[in-house]
Amino acid sequence: MSQEKIPILENSNLSNVLSSDLETARNAVLKEAKIFDHSKIKIKGYDFNKGINYEEILDSYISTGLQASHLGKAIEQIKEMIKIRNESFDVEEGIDINFPYPYGRKKRKLTLFLGYTSNLISSGLRDIFRFLAQHDMIDCIVTTAGGIEEDLIKSLQPSYLGDFKMDGKELRLAGMNRAGNVIIPNKNYCSFEDWIMPIFDEILNENKILTPSKLINKLGEKINCEDSVYYWCWKNNIPVYCPGITDGSLGDMLYFHSATRSKSLIIDVVEDIRNINTMAIRSNKTGTIILGGGIVKHHINNANLFRNGSDFSVYINTGIEDDGSDSGAKPDEAISWGKIKYDSTPIKVFSDATLVFPLIVAKTFAKNLKKN
Fold first, then answer.
1. Beta bridge partners of 347
2. How far apart (Å, rounded) are the C-alpha atoms in residues 8 and 329?
3. DSSP states of 299-368
4. Closest by CA position to 200, among listed 151, 250, 240, 234
5. Radius of gyration of the chain (CA)
6. CB 291 within 8 A of CB 117
7. What would the pLDDT profile of 85-124 be if each residue is shown by its tens digit?
8. Strands, DSSP E only, in 82-186?
9. Burial of 169 per CB tally in 10 Å (0-12, 13-18, 19+)
10. Does 339 qualify as catalytic in the annotation?
11. Backbone phi and psi for residue 185, each to the nearest 5 degrees, phi listed first
12. Angle 218-223-228 (CA atoms, 0-180°, nearest 5)?
């Protein structure tokens, strides 16, 4: 069977028009790639034909692309923070080797700030934060009131796994509180009240004016529970700052205490802002790991503004910048304010922190502990 010939266009005008169209299309679609300065990392995922090696799976993230690569870069950045922090550090003559607060807290070559929101303490990440504090792997924590109380409450009573779709009315009638898919029985807060009121009385009887950080330090001592993040912060002299200390059950307890006593506790927030800013100013280098947004994120970044920005910064959150909120703002916005150094390479991982922070710690802090 003879093959049919494809007819050739004979109309010269039509041919010229099509030729011109084709040239335009070729120039647009097949544009020549010019050499420019970009990453030399080729996109490649993990090959499961090699078997299951979780170490190598995590190593492959940096070349996987999308948020996996951001996670890989965050791991590398935190590794560098830890490396510098653990290097020997000699201060200049006449310069104090310790921070003024907390007394006896020794300076390192890099000061590491950790920030997280209350929902993450409500989750199982609490145990990872406790690990970091237990082994003195961070130098400063900033969190919310919920980030304080939920740790202490969990030392008294457990929380439970629920579901995001559980009916709010039914939970309320049953005396259950839902934080995402974490269920916190109301009796937990009753136990918290029974525990904390005598401590407030003790402070009041001593006529002491405490800062939020000093109050948290005292609560960490009093809880006397090795599962608690703040027990280990007290034990290892790690300052914990809570700029919104009244915004949660802690605030509720302060209200109930003041309403049932002839005088109220006085909390000095001014000393705390001076102390965290001074810690940033007097640090050789700083690194920040900020999980979530809001007041926690801003408080750490703003302290670092006083030293013209942090040297290393990792954000993990799901906020978007389009509404102008601080929570969703990318690191580049903080650079414009002087809160992150403009010659640094900060990274944001767009993710729920409960998904990725355990992986980060496994590849960084936990591995470093094993090595040492």
1. 314
2. 59
3. HHHHHHHTTT-BSEEEEEE---GGG--TTT--HHHHHHHTSB-TTS--EEEES-HHHHHHHHHHHTHHHH
4. 250
5. 27
6. yes
7. 999 988 888 788 999 999 999 999 999 999 999 999 999 9
8. 111-116, 140-143, 160-161, 176-179, 182-185
9. exposed
10. yes
11. -60, 145
12. 105
**Cβ atoms within 10 Å, residue 264:** 13
DSSP state letters, 180-204: TTEEEEHHHHHHHHHHHHHHHHHHH
Write down the mean pLDDT value for the chain.
93
Instruction: Report the distance separating Cα 2 and Cα 28, nearest Å.
Output: 38
Strand, coil or helix: 291: strand
User: How much is the average pLDDT of 176-191?
Assistant: 97
Q: Are 147 and 125 in contact (CB under 8 A)?
A: no
In this structure, the strands spanning 182-185 and 160-161 are antiparallel
Q: What is the CATH number of domain 57-157+203-371?
A: 3.40.910.10
Angle in degrees, CA 184, 189, 195, rounded to 5: 135
Residue 321 confidence class, pLDDT cut points 50, 70, 90: confident
Two tokens at 46? 């993990």
pTM for the complete prediction?
Answer: 0.91
355, amino acid identity: L
Contact between 268 and 211 (Cβ < 8 Å):
yes
Tell me the one-letter amino acid at 79.
Answer: K
Amino acid identity for residue 195 in this structure: W
Q: Are 297 and 290 a contacting pair, CB within 8 Å?
A: yes
pLDDT-derived band at 12 (thresholds 50, 70, 90) equals low
Q: Which of 73, 214, 339, 348 is catalytic?
A: 339
Which of 57, 111, 55 shows the shortest CA–CA distance to 82? 111
Write out the DSSP string of 104-123: T-B--SSEEEEEE-HHHHHS
For tokens 């929380």, the residue is 159
Whole-number Å distance between alpha carbons of 61 and 73:
9
**Unique residue bearing structure tokens 């960084």:** 364
Residue with tokens 């870069």, as numbered in its chain: 73
Dihedral class, residue 172 (left if φ above 0, else alpha if ψ from -120 to 50, else beta)? alpha
SS3 of 52, please?
coil
